[in-house]
């Protein structure tokens, strides 16, 4: 499905991603971990073509996407939606319009100028918001929502593109543990129910272990681990994070584990 071959990105002297290779043969939920500066964001940005590779290839269903230009590149970007740590919503715009922005690629300039959306798209946007448990927030301004709710709006906007792949760059890094859990569960559900591939850069080991089928560990631009959560032992983690004997897993933990999972969703302050 997805094959990354010797992908390299250099910024002058600095090699941010160094000959990264991996193959994904079915839609999986993949966590990318590694310390700050390891190259995680650069890898995701190249997959989405926000950033051009220096050398190497990215094949999706047999087609090299690193060479796509113009409309082909934009089409790939809508098949491969990206979610960011800071949500990247339009703060003063209402939630449903933010979600409808996910259809921007296929609307005319005039329709965009007058904020005209087909009725069917509006219905779909509300359905997606409902699926994510935030339909009642639809008329509110994005800035009036909590971080966890805003990230779910960003996921809804991504889903509006009906993407084959969802790339998430530290999607829960700005959220408290409870909202982090809600967002990760939403991504997991989208992966399982829709069969979409999810690749998420994650700061914490426990999150990667808990939600992902596969974990890729990066260190200094290189992929130094690629395996299952079970194979990601403390020793392997120490190697990925380049930490010495003083390495503690707690330092990369999110306390998610300590949440009371028996509480019904409606009681969760979002
Ligand atoms: N536009 C750029 N120009 C120059 N250097 C860059 C640029 N983007 C990234 N780098 C460098 O490339 C390396 C990898 O950066 P990247 O942002 O991919 O790391 P990361 O693993 O996402 O880190 P973090 O966990 O802090 O987000 C870093 O050394 C960074 O300074
Ligand atoms: Mg990053």
Automatic annotation (TrEMBL):
<protein>
    <submittedName>
        <fullName>Phosphonate transport system ATP-binding protein</fullName>
    </submittedName>
</protein>
<dbReference type="InterPro" id="IPR027417">
    <property type="entry name" value="P-loop_NTPase"/>
</dbReference>
<dbReference type="GO" id="GO:0016020">
    <property type="term" value="C:membrane"/>
</dbReference>
<feature type="domain" description="ABC transporter">
    <location>
        <begin position="2"/>
        <end position="245"/>
    </location>
</feature>
<keyword id="KW-1003">Cell membrane</keyword>
<keyword id="KW-0997">Cell inner membrane</keyword>
<keyword id="KW-0547">Nucleotide-binding</keyword>
<dbReference type="InterPro" id="IPR003439">
    <property type="entry name" value="ABC_transporter-like_ATP-bd"/>
</dbReference>
<keyword id="KW-0813">Transport</keyword>
<dbReference type="InterPro" id="IPR003593">
    <property type="entry name" value="AAA+_ATPase"/>
</dbReference>
<keyword id="KW-1278">Translocase</keyword>
<keyword id="KW-0067">ATP-binding</keyword>
<dbReference type="InterPro" id="IPR012693">
    <property type="entry name" value="ABC_transpr_PhnC"/>
</dbReference>
<dbReference type="InterPro" id="IPR017871">
    <property type="entry name" value="ABC_transporter-like_CS"/>
</dbReference>
<dbReference type="GO" id="GO:0015416">
    <property type="term" value="F:ABC-type phosphonate transporter activity"/>
</dbReference>
<dbReference type="GO" id="GO:0016887">
    <property type="term" value="F:ATP hydrolysis activity"/>
</dbReference>
<keyword id="KW-0472">Membrane</keyword>
<dbReference type="Pfam" id="PF00005">
    <property type="entry name" value="ABC_tran"/>
</dbReference>
<dbReference type="InterPro" id="IPR050086">
    <property type="entry name" value="MetN_ABC_transporter-like"/>
</dbReference>
<dbReference type="GO" id="GO:0005524">
    <property type="term" value="F:ATP binding"/>
</dbReference>
